[in-house]
Design a protein that fits this description.
Distance between the termini: 38 Å
Helix content: 25-40%
Shape: elongated
Structural class: alpha+beta
Largest sheet: 5 strands, mixed, barrel
Radius of gyration: 23 Å
Number of strands: 9
Order of helices and strands: EEEEEHEEHHHEHEH
């Protein structure tokens, strides 16, 4: 018996039974879940209806993650799966699905932030980024960086995560359909909500 997506075998809303007036059809088929794991990238093309291709990711180790408030997107490594609202089993088996909360490498975002605003983030955030050999900048570049730094604000929770080298992020793409694990960096009320849910476990 193949996997099928039809709903004719279900009872009616009133509880009555539906009659079987036809067999399964090719256009009603379903396929096994991809159950994407963390590892060296491995995607398989799957032919769909109309000759269209889906890309079934079997293993992924990186993705494009966006830091929305800073309009900054970087390709970063996915390190671990920490929470999944739908199923704890997917956390235990470290399965990448849409909506999963994962830990990603913070260094690309940290490097960008420090060069963009000219400040250090993390444990020694009180220091200005002028340790070791200082890179010579023109007066115009210095004025531009200081103007940026005036209106900047970094959440304390994000600052701490940057210091630890890991950021909490949410996968917003569908790894089993498009073969990618892209997402957003969690911040603000959404980050607070997921931290509360993880602490509750």
């Amino acid at each position: 018996m193949g996997i099928t997506r039809e709903g004719r075998h279900k009872r009616r809303e009133t509880g009555g039974r539906r009659s079987k007036f036809r067999k399964k059809r090719k256009f009603e088929l379903g396929r096994p879940a991809a159950m994407t794991k963390i590892g060296e990238k491995n995607t398989q093309p799957v032919r769909g209806r109309g000759g269209n291709l889906k890309f079934r990711a079997l293993r992924l180790d990186a993705g494009n993650f966006a830091w929305s408030t800073e309009s900054c997107t970087r390709k970063v490594r996915v390190l671990d799966v920490t929470y999944n609202a739908s199923n704890n089993e997917l956390v235990r088996t470290k399965t990448l699905v849409k909506g999963a909360i994962v830990l990603v490498d913070a260094h690309p975002f940290k490097e960008w932030y420090e060069s963009h605003y000219g400040v250090k983030v993390g444990p020694k955030s009180k220091q200005v980024a002028s340790t070791g050999e200082e890179v010579k900048k023109s007066d115009h570049a210095k004025r531009k960086i200081s103007a940026r730094a005036k209106g900047r604000s970094l959440e304390q929770t994000l600052d701490q995560q940057m210091g630890s080298g890991r950021l909490l992020a949410k996968i917003t793409s569908r790894p089993g359909q498009c073969g990618r694990a892209d997402g957003i960096i969690l911040e603000g009320p959404e980050l607070a909500f997921y931290q509360k849910m993880m602490a509750r476990k």
